[in-house]
Design a protein that fits this description.
Blueprint lengths: L4 H10 L18 H11 L32 H16 L13 H4 L7 H10 L5 E4 L2 E2 L3 E2 L2 E3 L30
Helix pairs in contact: 2-5
Amino acid sequence: MGLDHGAWSVLTHAFPDASVPVVQLSLNAFKSFDSHMELGRKLAPLRDEEVLIIGSGNVVHNLRTVDFRYPDTGYDWAHRFDDVAREALESDPTSIAALDGHADFRRAVPTPDHYLPLLYIAGLADTQPLDLIVDGHAAGSISMASYCLDLDLAGCESRSDEPAADLPEGFPALDTNL
């Protein structure tokens, strides 16, 4: 069946020549948040074997309320939920599983498919804080926040408000994220 757009849209930027083997996990939305985090913990030893683990999704992902008149901003509720998620991920990643009680959770996460991958990464990190590497919102109701674990950011250039470089010719930009 090929790769889900959530994996493909990340990998096409990171490895445009498709030079790495990929194994994609299916999500079981009927499992508890704790079950998803536990699976993330079980994946952690793969990192010692130099396996890159990516949890693709969006912290805030509500397609029902997308408004393309707001290409680079988010609604107040989207910012509130994204900010709370950031606090959790940068201090105690496993506390992200308790955010389903947050007042903005149902609007920010109307379906679990884009939130569950975050739980795998939270379980993988356990108590080790994650680092924010991409920030921002799109179309009012999508958070573009991305986090990493154990990436040496010391040599990276400072963050910029400039958009990302254009994709090579032939890549469908709308299908590779906003």
